[in-house]
């Protein structure tokens, strides 16, 4: 029997793979380290009729305390990024958004500075149209290679991906991103580096990076800022179990060290309900809860 082209672990805890550090065990954790291994893993799982979900850094996901009865395919080992002569960057799905920004900087290309410090991968960033400080993935992604819902390779343009605020058509179309291309602009490397350093300094000053979290817990409601509404309602420091509304930034739900997925969910529901009651604004989660209704 030939060896598998990917590593697979059975009954593996999910928490170490997730930025919030919560979640039960997965039936399988699958760890491919190349595009071909990722494709092989998904086709093998489909052939066996095994349920699966494809993730990156899990920086925006919370799995339930009961775990996941299927395979969690972690793409963090599927890495690679390069810059073409025309300034187009191409990155594999497991490459981090921060390293994408650094590659652009090192090649004196501008337009991806906002990615610096976003904890997700290229795949996850495209899936949710990640963004920060006025920039979004959809502004720079031009095309990508995906596995379609038949697990066949396909090249699609950005226009086909239905990008919106923190959303895309990846889930609806059943696409799994393999690689993506990004347009950039010529720039001065020192100026690009300075902007990236400034954005990181702003993150460190305003965000509770010392604690596990999923970044912004709620989407920005039109005309408002979620963190400001939450703070206005006196919810900073509110806790459920080990989960807390950050004292540093009310838009963040943090794990103080012993939180469960249920703690996170209950606290976010409490925040949503209090804000709705006090302000009339209904907050929508930016965090994706797997197998759980928010």
Task: Explain what the structure shows.
The protein is an alpha+beta fold and 294 residues long. It has three domains: 68 residues, Uridine Diphospho-n-acetylenolpyruvylglucosamine Reductase, domain 2 (2-Layer Sandwich); 112 residues, Uridine Diphospho-n-acetylenolpyruvylglucosamine Reductase, domain 3 (2-Layer Sandwich); 82 residues, Uridine Diphospho-n-acetylenolpyruvylglucosamine Reductase, domain 1 (Alpha-Beta Complex). Helices cover 27% and strands 26% of the residues. It contains seven helices and 19 strands. It has a five-stranded antiparallel sheet with strand order 6-7-13-11-12. A four-stranded mixed sheet has the order 1-2-5-3, with helices on one face. A four-stranded antiparallel sheet has the order 15-18-17-16. The chain is globular.
């Amino acid at each position: 029997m030939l060896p598998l082209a990917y590593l697979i672990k059975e009954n593996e805890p999910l928490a170490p793979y997730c930025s919030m550090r919560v979640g039960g065990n997965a039936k399988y954790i699958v760890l491919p380290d190349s595009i071909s291994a990722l494709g092989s893993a998904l086709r093998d799982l489909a052939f066996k009729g095994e349920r699966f979900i494809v993730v990156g850094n899990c920086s925006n996901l919370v799995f339930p305390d009961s775990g996941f009865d299927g395979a969690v395919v972690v793409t963090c080992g599927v890495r690679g990024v390069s810059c073409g002569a025309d300034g187009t960057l191409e990155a594999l799905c497991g490459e981090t958004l921060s390293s994408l920004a650094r590659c652009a900087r090192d090649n004196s290309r501008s337009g991806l500075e906002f990615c610096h410090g976003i904890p997700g991968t290229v795949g996850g960033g495209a899936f949710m149209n990640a963004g920060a400080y006025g920039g979004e993935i959809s502004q720079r992604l031009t095309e990508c290679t995906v596995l379609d819902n038949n697990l066949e390779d396909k090249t699609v343009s950005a226009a086909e991906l239905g990008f919106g605020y923190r959303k895309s058509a990846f889930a609806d179309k059943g696409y799994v991103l393999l690689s993506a291309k990004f347009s950039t602009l010529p720039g001065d490397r020192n100026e690009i580096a300075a902007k990236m350093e400034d954005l990181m300094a702003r993150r460190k000053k305003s965000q509770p990076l010392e604690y596990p979290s999923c970044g912004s817990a709620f989407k920005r409601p039109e005309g408002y800022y979620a963190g400001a509404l939450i703070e206005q309602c006196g919810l900073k420091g509110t806790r459920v179990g080990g989960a807390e509304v950050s004292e540093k930034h009310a838009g963040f739900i943090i794990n103080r060290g012993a939180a469960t997925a249920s703690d996170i969910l209950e606290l976010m529901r409490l925040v949503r309900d209090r804000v709705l009651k006090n302000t009339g604004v209904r907050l929508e989660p930016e965090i994706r809860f797997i197998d759980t209704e928010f």
